[in-house]
Fold this protein.
Amino acid sequence: MNESRPDNPRPSRDKTKETMAKRSSRRTSSSWWKAVVFALIVRALIVRAMSVCAMIALVALPGFGPLMRAQEPAATVAVDVKVVTLPVTVRDKHGKIVRDLTKDDFTLQEDGRPQTIKYFSQETNLPLTLGLLVDTSRSQDKVLDAERNASRSFLDQMLVQPKDKAFLIHFDREVELLQDLTSSREKLQSALELLKTSSDREHSNDPNDPSNSPSGSGSHHGGGTELYDAVYLASNELMKKQQGRKAFVILSDGVDRGSKTYLESAIESAQRSDTVVYSIYFADSHRNDNERANQGGGMGRGGGYPGGGGGGGWPGGGGGRGGRGGQRPAESRRTDGKKILERISKETGGRFFEVSKKESVGDIYTSIVEELRTQYSMGYTRDKDSAASGYHHVLLAVKKKDMSVQTRDGYYADSEVADHKN
């Protein structure tokens, strides 16, 4: 006898297989997404690890560490610590430079308070920024050629590495930048060829020469020697922006006529720009004193920086120095140029030289080269009592006997030059 069976038993098994396939598909899809998420997490971790490694590498590089740390939130209050640096030259009793001292051989005071020398070095080839300020007034007629020739050799000796830079300024009834800061000896040598005294320019046929302009400074017939303005402008507009060792060399008879700047303001501007000033007293001993005295009296209307045309400002004149300080009283006609140059050099840490039969300007330049290349550099951090703005006196001495120290007398705690007095 035949038993009855379901008419269609397969659909039940097929349905079971379909259900199992769907479950398997869901498991596969789930595993795939888990793999994708896992891969993304691993990738994110790798990227983060690479970023951390790059950060560590940057911090390890010189100069990058402080920058990176400065961008991080600070847990403590930052304090602006001022480091005072001093260029120092030491000589023995015979005037020879002493090169074998250490920081323990010095004592240092600021405003009468002992200070600790924290930074000390002596390097012969530190980068240098140098300025030549050349007097081209009529009093220099007889000596300008010697100044020009010696300056060629001097610049060749000073510009020995790519970071060394120099500029050239001449001053008489105007202050003019003949060559801006450059490392090119060729440009500086070309600028030296442009040095002419005011009387030479009056005889020039060059229509571009301000001396030949009816309305220009040539109408003053050479009556001016704007020494103080030259120091002031070069300090504020050129040296103040530079870092490292900085020095001026002034070639002049030291007698100022026509500047709008006081001597004190000129010295202060050099001090604030941390510039050492070397003065070379170079005068024509045969020139009649009365003739030189008769050139005085003008107030320096000519020229700008560079290009003339107005009030001795920079660049291009036109209204002075932005309203700072007006004109100063006329100098006495018996002003001692030597004392002026001695004071400028002493108060900025430089030296005064006088050209003579025994010591030519070339010899003096050789001495300056030696000094600038062998200075000690030392520094200290200001204490809390030095926080006040204004001028702070510094006294540096050598413990050993029969030695003299040459450095600046102090520094200004603030950054702006005081206004001129009216």
